[in-house]
């Protein structure tokens, strides 16, 4: 707090109330309300955003080179989350459109993605095979074990799909000479979108240059059970159509089941397994129309 006070004093801001909000501190001053947090932004990314006239993020009122950043506090309008999600997608398509560029492919990048996913699939196959084998030896299954046993085929089906499709994806990208990349917010969450007089994205600490689908992947993993992603994906592609290999990689990533560690109470494990199965089922429904005319 002493360090924050020194920063405020340097900028002639006299605080009279502090509110801690995660990694940020909200400060009420005579000049208004401000947000102070560790400056973790990649300055090169923000220089690039400025050059592309993308200004939908809180502006620093202090030197961007300082250890802490001070930004004006933005009031968020209260309106339905479903509409807010579509507004978030509109802003992401704008970000991706404005920052799209092509670079020579470093095939080692694609090879690394391929090998990481392949290794993950192999590990999860082995893990869930051993887990269900152990569960089957129990005379009496717990509710969480019984729920997993009843639904284990859904996990293996998802892994088989991913294993088949990652090979197809690798064959596709072998033919490419250019890679489409954008500025990724890389930390998308509905709580990181603010609608004030304009739309804003906050929490840019993880921003980087990368393949556009990773923003969609993060958003789906965090909100896949909360919203209709069939409509969200269509809405996104109306303004920013995905390339065939990009869409295939997105579907592989969202279809990969997570590893479930049986290290919590039966109640919590049962809840987690239920949510996992709901998301796998929802993912099947999202992906299947794109493969309706294929035999997979």
Secondary structure elements and their pairing?
Layout lengths: L1 H9 L4 E7 L2 E6 L2 E7 L4 H9 L16 E5 L8 H19 L1 E4 L2 H30 L6 H31 L4 E7 L8 E3 L3 E3 L6 E3 L2 H11 L5 H11 L4 H12 L10 H22 L9
Antiparallel strand pairs: 1-2, 2-3, 3-4, 5-6, 6-9, 7-8
Helix pairs in contact: 3-7, 4-5, 5-8, 5-9, 6-8
Strand content: 15-25%
| Residues in helix, % | 40-55%
What distance lies between the first and last C-alpha atoms, to the nearest angstrom?
Answer: 58 Å
Overall body shape: globular
Question: Can you put this structure into words, describing what you see?
Answer:
The protein is of the alpha+beta class and 296 residues long. The chain is built from nine helices and nine strands. The protein folds into two domains: 56 residues, no CATH class; 195 residues, Alpha-Beta Complex (Aminoglycoside 3'-phosphotransferase, Chain: A, domain 2), CATH 3.90.1200.10. The chain has a four-stranded antiparallel β-sheet, with helices on one face. A three-stranded antiparallel β-sheet has the order 5-6-9. Helix 3 packs parallel to helix 7 and helix 5 runs parallel beside helix 9. The longest helix has 31 residues. It is globular. The mean pLDDT is 90.
């Amino acid at each position: 707090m002493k360090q924050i006070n020194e920063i405020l004093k340097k900028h002639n801001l006299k605080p009279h109330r502090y509110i801690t909000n995660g990694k940020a501190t909200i400060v009420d001053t005579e000049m208004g309300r401000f947000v102070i947090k560790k400056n973790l932004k990649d300055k090169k990314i923000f220089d690039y955003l400025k050059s592309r006239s993308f200004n939908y993020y809180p502006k620093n009122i202090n030197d961007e080179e300082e250890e802490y950043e001070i930004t004006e506090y933005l009031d968020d309008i209260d309106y339905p989350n479903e509409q807010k999600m579509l507004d978030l997608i509109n802003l992401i398509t704008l970000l991706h459109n404005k920052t799209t560029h092509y670079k020579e492919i470093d095939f080692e990048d694609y090879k690394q993605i391929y090998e990481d996913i392949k290794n993950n699939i192999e590990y999860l196959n082995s893990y869930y095979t051993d887990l269900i084998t152990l569960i089957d030896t129990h005379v009496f299954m717990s509710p969480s074990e019984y729920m997993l046993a009843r639904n284990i085929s859904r996990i293996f089906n998802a892994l088989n799909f991913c294993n088949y499709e990652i090979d197809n994806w690798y064959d596709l990208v072998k033919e490419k000479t250019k890679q489409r990349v954008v500025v990724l917010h890389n930390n998308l969450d509905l709580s990181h979108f603010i609608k004030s007089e304009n739309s804003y994205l906050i929490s840019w600490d993880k921003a980087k240059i990368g393949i556009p689908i990773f923003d969609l992947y993060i958003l789906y993993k965090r909100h896949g059970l909360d919203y209709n992603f069939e409509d969200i994906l269509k809405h996104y592609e109306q303004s920013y159509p995905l390339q065939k290999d990009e869409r295939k990689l997105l579907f592989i990533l969202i279809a990969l089941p997570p590893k479930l560690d049986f290290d919590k109470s039966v109640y919590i494990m049962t809840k987690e397994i239920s949510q996992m199965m709901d998301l796998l089922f929802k993912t099947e429904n999202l992906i299947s129309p794109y493969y309706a005319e294929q035999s997979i």
